[in-house]
Each structure stands twice: as C-alpha cells, then as structure tokens.
Amino acid sequence: MQGSQRPPPSGDTPQAKRFIVAKIRIFGLMLVVALVGLFTGAAKAQILVGRCGAGTQYLTIQAAVNAASSGSVIKICPGNYLEQVVIEKPLTLEGIISQGVEGVLIQPPAKGLVTNDLTWAAQLLVKNTSGVTLSNLIVDAAANPPACLSPALIGIVFHNASGTVNKTAVRNQASNGSGVCSGVGFLATVDNQQAQTVTLENSDFRNIFYTPIYAVGPGLTMNTLNNYVAGADNVPAGATGISYQSGAAGTIQGNTVANQNTPTANLPTLAAQGIDVVCASATVSGNTVVNTQVGILVGCPQGNNLQGNSTVTMNKIFETHKFDGIYVYSGVNSITKNSIVGAGASGIHLDTTQGSVNNVVSGNTVTESCAGILTTGTGSNKVSGNTFNALYVPTLNAATCGPIF
Questions:
Q1: For 274-331, what is each residue's pLDDT tens digit?
Q2: Dist CA 272 CA 187 (whole Å)
Q3: Separation between Cα atoms, residue 85 and residue 126, nearest integer Å
Q4: Is residue 203 a part of any domain in this protein?
Q5: Is residue 66 part of a domain?
Q6: Whose CA is closest to 335, among 360, 314, 352?
Q7: H helix and E strand count, the chain
Q8: CA 236 to CA 240: how far, in whole Å?
Q9: CA angle in degrees (0–180, nearest 5) for 355-316-374
Q10: Which domain holds residue 377?
Q11: Using one digit for the tens of pLDDT, what is the confidence trace for 98-134?
C-alpha cells in the first residue's frame, strides 16, 4: 500500500544482517554527535575570577590559573586583586567590563612583593610556556612597602615564554615612588637560547623608575607596537623608555616615549634615552620621542659578540636636552628619514671612536640644534641627502657640539 512502511527483514538472512549493521552505524553516529556537543559545551564553560557573571568562579586570579587547563580563557571581573600571579601554561587572561564598570587592578599583597623568579619580584610572571595572552589589565605597584624585598621590582615578566600583551597599563614600578628599588614595567627575556616571540601593543607605562619596556637575550623576538611610555622624574643613569639589549631582535614601531631625564649624566651612554638598541637588532620606525637626553641610541661596545644591525627610520624626535637626537656607536646601521627638532648637541651623532662606521645616514631633517650631523673620530659613513634648518653648523667633525639646551 502506498505510504506504508516495509517491516524490517527477519531471520538470519543477508537482508537482516545488513539492516542490523545499518542500525548500529546510525546509533554510533548519533552517539558521536552527542559527545561532540557535550565536550563543546564543556570547552565553552566560562572560567571567571570574581562574581560578575555565570561560570566557574574563583576569588583570586592565581586560583583560576592553577585550576584552568591549557588553552583556557579566564575572564576577570572588575576589582582589586592583591596578589602575585605566576603562569606556566598557555592561557588567556582578559579583564572584562561588567555593568558598565571596568578596571582589573592587580596590586601587591598586603605584606609586599617577594622574589618569585631569579632576583625579580614580578607582579605578573609568565615563564617556560607559550601562547599566553594578557589583555585589559592594570598592574600597579604603588601600594608596595617602601623597602623592597627584592633587587628588581617588575610589573610583567615573560621569562623563556611567548605570547601577547594588549591594552594593559603598568605603572608605579618605583616602590611607592621612593626610588628604593630599580623598577621595570615589562621585561621579556630569554636565557636558554630557545626562540620566543613576544608582542607588546596598545599599552600604557607610567612612573617606572628605571626602564618601562625591556627586551633582552638571544632568541627573543619582541614586537613593541603603539605603546605610550612616560618616564619618572630623575630616573637613574642609563634609564631608557624602550630598551632592546644583548641579542634581542624585533620591531619598535608607533610608540610614544616621553620624559626620560637624568640630570647628572655626562655621557650619551649614561644619559636617559627614549629608545635604545644595544648589542641587538631592531627596526625602529614611526615612533615619537619627546623630552629626553638622547632620543634614540644604537650601538654596541667594540669586541662584543652580539653586534647588531638596526634600521632607524621615520621617527620624530623632539627636545633632547644635553645630548643627541640619535646617537650611533656601532656599524652597518641605516638611519633614514627621521625628523629631529631641538637637539641639545647634534641631530645625529656618529661616534666612530666606538665603531660607528659603514652606516647609511640619508633623508633626515634636523631643525634647531648645535650640529646637524656630528662625527667624532675618523671613519667612513655614507652621509647624503639630509636637510638642516636653523643650526649652528650643518655637519661637524669634532669631539662635541653643544649642548645648547
């Protein structure tokens, strides 16, 4: 009859066996679909720090980190978290907005920060892992007791680790503003010769007593992009807004660095610098550097086995009090298309007494400084096509020039 169903075959016939196999396959497929749905739902279960939403809730960031499986996303409710956090597996930590309120503030524990890796007291430490993402956090050490319990106070550390830090603020790494401790805002370091890549972007650094952003070690590729760095008053000798050293490599692009000053410094290498690349290699481009003693420093002591070659291009450098807009004391670098205004000594200083040879210096504009380009010592560099405005002298071979500010 049309529309009626045929009964299943019965008995030990080939048709019956095929029917049973088909039923088993259908049941197995349904079971797989159910299990996939079950596990997918479990993977999507939210891990939450605080009580601003549904999900598995923890009262501290560290408790959530300890409990989370690799690859998990941890959402952090607005609030104050008095703890030091250590991450040793791939995780994402994200500060969230709840009912129009935001601000995940990580502060020192009540008894102060303690050493938690080598000689560092890091508020947030990522070590020996990869794939860690931190976003929308505030790391603030202002409440730390004036006497540090560790030689180095650091906001965030990536030690032999890779990952991304985005839209994060780090501030007051200066032991309650007293200058008792040397302070670093963000440190990425590799000391095991393994390749690591770290990206630091769209973040804010203020009142860091020594170096706000610091990358060091062979094997490290650090991309420092579109950050704002404001130095503390009277920082110590050699303090730098963004510093790449000892084999680090990568890109420094689109950052603003302001107010790095050491009033007593008597050498460019001891001055407070906006950006430095020392025995490292980097592309330094499109940055704005304001109110420092040296705008950008590129160099490496002769004989060092970590000599690097860098490109410094299309940066804007304003008001380098006492010393140079760009100071170069190593060879085979490219210094092109930079705009330098108000350099106390020279717009660009090529120190050949320290190995500044075979550099390409072209297309730069220098306005209002003692010398446009100063060369100390003797050596060969390719200097051409630069523009000079309102200078004492466009080019000068001498020991010093200025300072005029």
A1: 999 999 999 999 999 999 999 999 999 888 888 889 999 999 999 998 899 999 999 9
A2: 18
A3: 8
A4: no
A5: no
A6: 360
A7: 2, 36
A8: 9
A9: 35
A10: 275-405
A11: 888 789 999 999 988 889 999 899 999 999 999 999 9
